């Protein structure tokens, strides 16, 4: 008899290559910039746009609903792009959102050029590949639908893990009582991971074993901090849609924990793909974990 893992979520990782049509000066962190440009390209497809970008309108509870995608911009501080220079981004579709992958690709192709930044610099779509198996999905106007294959979120285990280092590659934004937290303990991280995975599974397909999630939360309170090298990074970005600046501040750096960390390995592996915290659609909360 096959043993079920404590969680099961599918996703489709897309690697999107754009090329600058003109010399461009862009913000160092492009999450919101790219999200806006992709949304603008998709806007005329009402069904796909609503599902991907405005999913809360499909929910009658009035609660905050996460959208089923993650945009991961370049992690460098590069801001200048010359004509013909490549800009690479990752876009992850979660669960049932894969049904709109073709609509998304057609929208990017039909847009002719994407307008990035406050000055609306022009970029064009060059290629889309699968993030895991590197199969070309779209190039030179040709779409390979057979390459649009979802993959299962890995359930990875490791024995005897006593220490870990979590590096925050993009700002981590977690609010408590309406304010951004400026320090994070292990319980907060694990609670955020399990809550996010449960929300994705319930909304977009899959499952999370709630009893196992509760068990790891209890164990997480026994894990202690060894070293903390986190600091608040203040980031503001202008939103063309809202006509105002948006606060994208969050924690950056790394933090080390020690204890019996073996039970958390699968959840931490998953979080490296799904991100944690708020504004993950902009690429916030990307983490990398080292296990000792």
How would you characterize this protein structure?
This protein has 292 residues and is an alpha+beta fold. It has two domains: 7-152, Alpha-Beta Plaits (2-Layer Sandwich), CATH 3.30.70; 163-291, 2-Layer Sandwich (Alpha-Beta Plaits), CATH 3.30.70. It is 24% helix and 34% strand. The strands form six sheets. Strands 2, 4, 6, 7, 8, 9, 10 and 11 form an eight-stranded antiparallel beta sheet that branches. It has a four-stranded antiparallel beta sheet with strand order 16-19-12-20, covered by helices on one side. β7 and β8 form a beta hairpin. The longest helix is centred in the last third of the chain and has 19 residues, at 186-204. The protein is globular, with a radius of gyration of 19 Å. The chain starts with 6 loop residues before the first strand and ends with a strand. The mean pLDDT is 91.
Task: Explain the layout of strands and helices.
Layout: E1 7-8, E2 10-20, E3 24-25, H1 31-42, H2 46-53, E4 69-72, E5 80-81, E6 86-94, H3 101-110, E7 114-116, E8 121-130, E9 136-139, E10 142-143, E11 151-152, E12 163-172, E13 175-176, E14 179-180, H4 186-204, E15 207-208, H5 210-220, E16 224-233, E17 236-239, E18 244-247, E19 250-258, H6 265-274, E20 287-291
Antiparallel strand pairs: 1-15, 2-6, 2-8, 2-11, 3-5, 4-6, 7-8, 8-9, 9-10, 12-19, 12-20, 13-14, 16-19, 17-18
Helix pairs in contact: 4-5, 4-6
